[in-house]
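Re: beginner question about structure tokens

> Can someone show what the tokenized structure looks like for a real chain? I only ever see the sequence side.

Sure, here's an example I had lying around. Input first:
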Amino acid sequence: MKADYMERFGILLDYYGPQHWWPAGSIFEMLIGAILTQNTNWKNVAISLKKLAPFLTPEKMERLEIDELAGLIRSSGFYRLKAQRIRSFLNWYRRYDYDPGKAGAEDGCELRKELLDVKGIGEETADAMLVYAFGKPFFIADAYARRLFTRLGDRVPKTYGALRAQVEKDLPDDLTVYQEFHALIVAHAKTHCRAVPSCEHCPLAAQCESRGALK
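And the corresponding structure tokens:
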């Protein structure tokens, strides 16, 4: 049976309520957080963002020496590499005068290509930036989504891009849906569809082919 992603979105929304993501005090903080969260958990990112707080504008961050920036984000792991990625991203963002409105005025697919050309910005990071900072509807086909849809019995494509395209066929051209669906999947992955799942009271239990089998 064909997966009904909008039905699942509605079930999760009814269960968890609107998530109002991304957790950040500004668009720029969101963009930096998307880079810092690569290969680590949000707890470590939050520590780095707290240390970065006095520098959370593009102009201030650009004035930091690369070693100073790396030291501030040490808790996020791979801190020297991520400092270089932040610097590369800032070099790109300067084209738009550090203005998310100017970047968001560009065609979404073209903007995505530009982001993917930035060293260290992969598909998941680019899509998060597009959805939460630049107002472009792309499905964030992260590991949580892959885990959830696999357990629900979907034929999940092997590649990130194929999974993104598969889900997007079923979603309306509504940015709020994309923002909330991703946030709801994260909430569900942390509450029920964990690495070791907690199936009791799961709102998607009736659809889940793996219910109980993974305990």
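Each token stands for a local structural state, so reading them left to right follows the chain. The longest helix spans residues 175-191.
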